[in-house]
Amino acid sequence: MSTSQEKETYRNELAARQQVIKNEGLPVIVILEGWSASGKGSALGSIIKFMDPRFFRVYNMDVISEDDKRYPFLYRHAVRMPLKGQFSFFDGSMMDEVTYAYMKEEISEKEYDNRINSIINYERQLRDNGYLVIKFFLEVSEKEQKNRIEKLLESKNTRWRVNKKDLWQNKNYKKCKKVYDDYIKRTDSKGCPWHRIKADDRDQVEFIIANTIISGIDSAVKNPWTAEILNNPYEMAGVKKLSKIKLKDKVLTDEEYKKKLKKLQKELSDLHNRLYRKKIPVIIAYEGWDAAGKGGNIKRVASALDPRGYEVFPIASPSAEEKNRHFLWRFYNRLPKTGHIAIYDRTWYGRVMVERLEGFCSENDWKRAYNEINEFEKDLTDWGAVVIKFWVQIDKDTQLERFTLRQNTPEKQWKITDEDWRNREKWDLYETAIDEMIAKTSTVYAPWHVLESNDKKYARIKALEIIIKEIKKKL
Amino acid sequence: MSTSQEKETYRNELAARQQVIKNEGLPVIVILEGWSASGKGSALGSIIKFMDPRFFRVYNMDVISEDDKRYPFLYRHAVRMPLKGQFSFFDGSMMDEVTYAYMKEEISEKEYDNRINSIINYERQLRDNGYLVIKFFLEVSEKEQKNRIEKLLESKNTRWRVNKKDLWQNKNYKKCKKVYDDYIKRTDSKGCPWHRIKADDRDQVEFIIANTIISGIDSAVKNPWTAEILNNPYEMAGVKKLSKIKLKDKVLTDEEYKKKLKKLQKELSDLHNRLYRKKIPVIIAYEGWDAAGKGGNIKRVASALDPRGYEVFPIASPSAEEKNRHFLWRFYNRLPKTGHIAIYDRTWYGRVMVERLEGFCSENDWKRAYNEINEFEKDLTDWGAVVIKFWVQIDKDTQLERFTLRQNTPEKQWKITDEDWRNREKWDLYETAIDEMIAKTSTVYAPWHVLESNDKKYARIKALEIIIKEIKKKL
């Protein structure tokens, strides 16, 4: 039992840490998991009671909304990651939903394993990207849980807080315990360790949580985390260097183009209908040289689609809010719903191209990003998405021709900026980075496809053919 | 029947207008309403087919998600308003949902009238804030509708597109027609007129829609809209000028304060529980002088609440994305869900204080804003929310004392900036603006409450008392 003076002390210290994380730009994620009736909610309530409510957010993750169900399971967690210098408190998180789905046989053993791996990777990514992640598991014995639930059921004022899941959990206590122990063991890591707390004494729980957060912050500030560059664990697809890609002869006559375009657009349109009904999400990512013809290519794909079922996301430099979060956060916020198609005009690969070359992130950041991106795309395909990545390729002379044309045509001048010319000067540096990117992120589940676009018509037809082929594989 | 050359012409012209609205920073909202099977979806599909998909978004508003249902009915429309220079296309919009709810008696005659008024005001606000709003209603006769539905039902590939509502509509065609005609008449306005189109010939529909959009944009560019400053139509509560507010003697001893605080926090905590179960949303808005004690006041309120049921929103200057939309957009994005409490540390009233005084908006903008805010808050109370607005008042000497203390106390220095001192120099200008604001926005449904905060303890207790009283009125 902690004395009221101890309480006073850690409350003041915790309040002071808000200033520390603000000044340090440290984002902190506190996850409270535990048995039903272990007192998560009230522990959380006491912890934040004396903190400044402008610098934290609390999320109760108990109920998964219908909207959230239409995204990958990590989505609703990822979109809630805090800004630098702020707290996110999660009352319940991935553990509860994933173990429950597994025990209720809503997901298979294999899906369960996949999700655990996703969680391990996701939490490691958070830590590597500067987040402090503090995880608690509140324990009560079978008997104590039973007593608490019965007490809640006694009064009309508290009865509504007991749901079917709580009762089920107490009835299946031993089975649950085994699964929880296993989950905790597997998701325990050096960067994001679990703290198990016996939840018999409420004051004690609050005391331990508060002090763990305080010392966690102090230690994170004193000893900045150094992220390792991990080896890629995924099977890779074969790739070519850009310099080996043949662009000559990849051309179509106007007549061939028109005929094929019409046929392929019709086919894609029908497939879109079927995708929609089968609730399969599709992600089409476009990267390529400036003036390679991404815009026109996207237009030919989009115009075959039902406008109610797709979105095009032009990706510019990140906003201030986006910069203050994990670099994938803004893409979690731009995922398609199940049954929808999302097309990206530039993508998360900015991390290993422009951010790398312009020094917008550290070397460790971009070197880590290959793996982080592979994990992200793995989650998307595990979710059931078709992931198609295009590199739109032209040669340097063709780019010059198109730049010059844009410069000299009044209605096209808006398409060309000084930055384009500056980027052009760095062609060779970019080529090295792109070769590395394609080699390191062409996984078998999400390989790169090169669109030879010296002739834009050829590239458009090839894009449509690949999209159709990939979607068909999935249907 | 339009010829293929006409088609070519308006398609090119429409594509060119995307560049126009981009350059002019004109946001365009296109609303397509109409009878079931009138071909809204396919008309929209043909319209956007040749446009650049990076500069528009299409929203199918048919299905209201469970999440959206927990917000005011205008919410899901408002959060989808386009950025400056972009299009939002709505396939179905307010009309369909509101008339259907009315005919199905899900809302009363009075609620229906309220919603129509809200729609009229909301669309006028959009126009006044620089949006071009183009509304179409696609008509088919009873017989033609029946034929089309029957045809859709014939094939397995199209049958899923017919839902119960469509069948119901055809069965109740005459009743629907009467309601639609009335709705269109009432929501027709100079700024946002309806365009009714006979939808018998698909090509004709596309032709009319495209040309209406083209001429709408041209006319909006040539003749910029001048917004009128409207008279306030709402009943106002009595208010005092700031200079008449007595601050002396509004004090509490430490003992009184502690005793009352404990009692009131307990009471608020119980009420929060009841609010949550009754799904009543609460909006608590704080405005006040720098160093008036808003933060500490908010903390005393928040710490009485269940952390899973409230959020505190600190409002800083708007982001680039927020600046490129209606000034209320960022508050639509920060509303509480039903049953939740949202507390705002500074609010939408920035428009008539800092934005007015620093010239961040035009005179017409801030003069219009009183009415726009009253309408916004009226919608919130119509939705069922408790809206509580606090002005936290101190005198100029007290501010100086607190500024000086902050300046001289190392752990408080972060709270004071050069901007605070600059604002202080404009005290008299602010006072005039605040007096006008309070006088013009103290409606009977959302009056201002002054918290005398020379003694912060007094102000905290008064805030809790008012919150409790206002919530009780609603329960």
Short description:
The first copy, chain A, is of the alpha/beta class. The first copy, chain A, has helices at 4-24, 40-48, 75-78, 94-103, 109-128, 142-154, 156-159, 164-171, 173-187, 202-222, 254-278, 294-302, 320-323, 329-332, 354-357, 363-383, 396-408, 418-425, 427-441, 456-474, and strands spanning 28-34, 56-60, 87-91, 132-139, 194-198, 282-288, 310-314, 341-345, 386-393, 448-452. The first copy, chain A, starts with a helix and ends with a helix.
The CATH C-level name of the largest domain in chain A is Alpha Beta
What is the CATH H-level superfamily of the largest domain in chain A? P-loop containing nucleotide triphosphate hydrolases
- Low-confidence parts of chain A: none
- Tally of structural domains of chain A: 2
Mean pLDDT of chain A: 94
Instruction: State the helix count of chain A.
Output: 20
Radius of gyration of chain A: 26 Å
General shape of chain A:
elongated
Report how far the terminal alpha carbons of chain A are from each other. Answer: 60 Å
The sequence of SSEs of chain A as H and E is HEHEHEHHEHHHHEHHEHEHHEHHEHHHEH
The percent of residues in helical segments of chain A reads 40-55%
Helices and strands, with pairings:
The structure is a homodimer of 475-residue chains.
Chain A: H1 4-24, E1 28-34, H2 40-48, E2 56-60, H3 75-78, E3 87-91, H4 94-103, H5 109-128, E4 132-139, H6 142-154, H7 156-159, H8 164-171, H9 173-187, E5 194-198, H10 202-222, H11 254-278, E6 282-288, H12 294-302, E7 310-314, H13 320-323, H14 329-332, E8 341-345, H15 354-357, H16 363-383, E9 386-393, H17 396-408, H18 418-425, H19 427-441, E10 448-452, H20 456-474
Parallel strand pairs in A: 1-3, 1-4, 2-3, 4-5, 6-8, 6-9, 7-8, 9-10
Helix pairs in contact in A: 1-10, 2-10, 4-5, 5-16, 11-20, 12-20
